[in-house]
Amino acid sequence: MNPAWLAPAWLAPTARAVPWQPLAGVAACLMAVCALALTTGSWPWGVLDIAAAGLAAAVVAGLHDPAAKLLSAVPTSAARRRARREAMLVPAGVALWLAYLSVAHVVAPKVGWPVGPAVALIATGLAVVAWAPERFAIEAGVATPLMWVALARAGVVIDEQYSQVVFAFQHHPWIVTAAAAAALLMGRNR
Amino acid sequence: MTILTSVASLEIDELTKTYGRTKALDGVSLSAGRGVIGLLGPNGAGKTTLLRMVATVLAPDSGSLRLLGLDPADPGQRIEIRRRLGYLPQSPGLYANFTPFDLVDYVAVLKEHTDRDWRRDETRRLLESVGLADVMHQKIRRLSGGMKQRVALAAAMVGSPDLLVLDEPANGLDPDQRLQLRSLLSQSSTVLMSTHNISEVGALCQSVYVMFSGRVRFAGTPAELAGLAVGRVWEDDSQDPRAIRSWMTATGAFRHLGEPPAGAQVVDPTLDDGYLFLARQEHR
After folding, report:
1. Phi and psi torsions of B91, nearest 5°
2. Can you list the positions of beta strands (E) in A71-171?
3. pTM score, two decimals?
4. Does A17 touch chain B (CB under 8 A)?
5. d(Cα B250, Cα B272) in Å, to the nearest integer?
């Protein structure tokens, strides 16, 4: 019953059970952006937050489990199974983002390494999945980073406080990440 | 109403569950030991809600539940129950890119079976027992609906569970596969299964519960359910408007359910007759 003993057994089937297509789709889009940027020699600054939102949504979409009903009564809880998926999806998403930024650096060194906003959006999406009602948790988690970036892009600024919230993933990404991680941990046994 | 059979694997007392304004379960009680217990009722009667509670997937709003002598409300005991429980939900999803072998093996991993050799033997045994030995290494996406149902059934039976909870297990199975299912279930210890196939209940179940509108309206043996319609089934050559239900049988005669007229040729009721009579009472 030692989890370390179990690790080799669950690792491969869990990796196979994860729907990687959304992340692969986003990777293809990011590659297309990179190819275009390398060809034209200019970086499309405007798509950075959209790319981060797409990536976060794809990571969250990887939690979709078509066999969830069949597995709902096994001793390995849904939260633990989800945590295992997250342990695969999040590093893959972050690695993809770093690869994207490293290409961006070649064309436009001023891009810097804005890893924080992408991580904040991913963490927020995962936290929403942990707390949203089960029947639409994944959909809500996928929609969250997209909606958040859409709000920021729409420039909906009513007042200063509102603006602080809308742009929090950009201005305070690690605070957002910490809060989302705490929410994720607190919601893991729901 | 309660049936007591040997040591109870299942003790359910006054369970209730409400979704919005709908009372899915309204004071359901039952108790059962070893054997196959059938759950009958129309769609929306609360069968799936009850099975999800027995599978420890859903918590009741009120009432108590003891499974295999343990309390599923306690997280530690719930895990222990799950180690000894198999659950086949209605229309279970599967991983299309897995083979049946991979899927059942994965379920065994999630059921905390750490011995790889044991898992492989168990997976092979189960897939053979559900008649999927020839396709156990084919992708699930290439299998028919009936085969997928049998893969899910094999997954539910990993580790020979003490309590097997099956939501319409015969869905999509052909007659031969249904017989195979009967043979499999008759070897299991405690099985609670819902079905719309009344003949399945007659062939397999030691006891039967009939639910309507979230309540248990009948509890007894299949023979007792059929017995509800004793003296209320008759046959003749033409349709009888006085009957509450009438249908033509394979012999061309009409079978009627209701209060028979004087001189009618009363026949022995079947399980279907008993169920239909009960359903008719319920809708009055």
Report:
1. 35, 70
2. none
3. 0.89
4. yes
5. 15
Q: Hey, is the C-beta of B58 within 8 angstroms of any chain A C-beta?
A: no
- Strands B35-40 and B85-88 turn out to be unpaired
Q: A75-113: per-residue pLDDT in tens?
A: 999 999 999 999 999 999 999 999 999 988 888 888 888
Task: Report residue A123: phi and psi, to 5°.
Answer: -60, -40
Contact B110 A76 (CB under 8 A): yes
- B276, amino acid identity: L
- B194 close to B53: Cβ distance less than 8 angstroms: no
CA-to-CA separations, A17 to A25, A168, B97, B112, in angstroms, rounded: 17, 34, 8, 18
* DSSP string for residues in A118-177: HHHHHHHHHHHHHHS-GGGHHHHHHHHHHHHHHHHHHT--SSHHHHHHHTHHHHSHHHHH
All residues of chain A having their beta carbon less than 8 Å from the beta carbon of residue B95 are 16-17, 66-67
Identify residue A28 by its one-letter amino acid code: A
Q: Could you give the ipTM of this predicted complex?
A: 0.89
**Contact predicate A184/A124, CB 8 Å:** no
Quickly count: other Cβ atoms within 10 Å of residue A144's Cβ. Answer: 23
